[in-house]
Design a protein that fits this description.
CATH topology of the largest domain: Rossmann fold
CATH class of the largest domain: Alpha Beta
Number of helices: 13
Shape: globular
Distance between the termini: 44 Å
Order of helices and strands: EHEHHEHEHHEHEHEEEEHEEHEHEHH
Largest sheet: 7 strands, mixed
Helix content: 25-40%
Length: 323
Amino acid sequence: MPRITVNEAIAQAIAEEMRRDPAVLMFGEGVATKRGELVAEFGTARVRNTPLAEGIIAGTAAGAAASGLRPVVDLLFAPFLCFAMDEIVNSAGKLRYMSGGQFKFPMVVLAQSGAGWTVGAQHNHNLEAWFVHSPGLKVVMPSSPADFKGLLKAAIRDDNPVLFFMDLALGFQAGEVPAGEHVVPLGRAATLREGRDVTLVSYAKTVHHCVAAAEMLAGQGISAEVIDLRSLKPLDEAAILASVRRTGRIVVVHEASRLCGVGAEVAALVAEHAFDALKAPIRRLTGPDTPAPSSWPLEQAFVPQADAIAAAARELVGARVCA
């Protein structure tokens, strides 16, 4: 399988879907400038720059989707979604239901999120939980080039609006991506490493920190299972519960702040449906409840790292290890 970066995987997915379906088009902030290869192949009618007006971009996408097109729009940074909440949440997310299914809203909203590029708090805010909480929307946040490509293709083909968050720190990460048609269904988690003692659940960049923590733990006699959620809504509840029933312990990790985050939903799910299998309390490791710093060292402190994840897992399985 060829190795490509996340950014290249995203570009491949968009180009392949535009070739496959003439209803797919792309517009947004600087897309024609950044993606000249798409303009060259598909023309300015299907790939367009827009004014820096997120509400107008999202509203245009909702109207285009209702008219039978499949727009992919780029709003650049996740905090800019604040300017498009009515169009995304109140229109695209609700109007299919309110129309009794007469309209579809097959639109994908791309937004960059997360620490790693020192862009400061007004450009870095992990808002995925807002949209998980909003009816009618789907939410995706992958961690590998293969999943970026496969999930983006699935999102473009979906008949519902999909928020597609791209972790800034992963853009130039390279990995193997299957050649040919590669689609990853929404709503399915990936088990990256099997284990018997503790489950590490995460998404986006902190998945890689969990894998590193699992490797550290293996050297200490602790077998950690690593689950990459990939899709936050729909959430693969079955995969989470099956893993916790095997291991009896869970650490949920994400960069977004703890309060009402995705980790809280995972913790509640386990407490409600797998409490009898738990051998230790549920642990959450998250970013702090503060705006993101723009300093590189502070950014790294802001994000849960492998050492902290491994330490939390050791605490949960400490009694067995000491024995």
